Amino acid sequence: MSLPAGSTIGIIGGGQLGRMLAMAAARLGYRTVVLEPQADCPAAQVANRQITAAYDEPAALAELAVVSSVITYEFENVPVGAASALAAKVPVYPPARALEVAQDRVSEKTFLNGISIATADFHAVDNDDELTAALKAFDGSGILKTRRMGYDGKGQRVFRNMETGGFAGTCEAMGNVPLILESFVPFEREISVIAARGLDGAVVAYDPAENVHRNGILHTSTLPAGIRPETAQAARTAASKILSALNYVGVIGVEFFVLADGSLLANEIAPRVHNSGHWTEAACIVSQFEQHIRAIAGLPLGGPDRHSDCVMENLIGDDVLRVPALLTEPDLMLHLYGKAEARPGRKMGHFTRIKAIPGKV
Ligand code: AMP
Fold first, then answer.
1. Helix 80-87 to helix 58-67 angle, to the nearest 10 degrees?
2. What is the pLDDT of residues 126-161, one digit of tens each?
3. Which of 70, 107, 308, 312 suits a disulfide with 279, CB 3.0-4.6 Å?
């Protein structure tokens, strides 16, 4: 049964993703309540109501469960315990199992390998001796990452062709938290697939975007990606396999490295709408945000085809000063997030330039 119009959707997290979900929900006739500790957050500016409290505060979660017919979230670090407790009272999508898998890079890769999706080789690392041994196994090159709570390249250290040994103090410098050493992937490009699974198990996948990062933060997503059709199909198939294996409901983002021979290694799964899917709002009839709301509301999913080629670019920090000039372009869609202060590294908005698909009338 689908969620009747006028029902309330609870959103945990009040950033720009929550904001765009709330806007999509409103267009489908739903109300939204946002749980977020920061007052006047981007999502609350466009939602019906904000519960201003920590994501794991029991009273706030209980209130969210009472007022919502279904609950979703906009970031993957929602405490699994909180999601499971809520799920006992009201449907929570995507399922808590997806959070559990995505929150730890070792569980994530183990899960992916378990369903025959290849990733970079990896070793769990808890101390400097384990780091030395793991680097030795990877001939001195690799990327050391925190297992949990990493985003936008934060909490990472790159080792290239280093003599192994002499890494005393590295784990302490990384905060003495559980780490993972990944083999260094000589990728040719990075792509991501945004896909969705409905309550009825139907799956749709958008075309892969080609992503370029700057300083660990997504800079642009370009459609079409410069990959062969077989590679694009393999990425969509992998995303669909992940959705089914997790008995997922909602939108997921899956990031891949593309190797020189066109084969793929999955890097990360994000159990939510994803920055590399923002282009869908300008170049598809149904955006990733609407697709997510449709999925969790039990509505039929929309088609994933794009009507235009496009390039989405993030506006980070002072990039927002470009807005007046950008707005003079006729084929550009702008989206600002309502953040008052343009701090360095802060995602302030994005824009998408669209152009006709060659040969398409
Ligand atoms: P992540 O936080 O895992 O998304 O990593 C941030 C960025 O670092 C990725 O988008 C890649 O550009 C790069 N990166 C991450 N892991 C690897 C790897 N194992 N080999 C090569 N580059 C990587």
1. 40
2. 999 999 999 999 989 999 999 998 665 667 889 987
3. 312
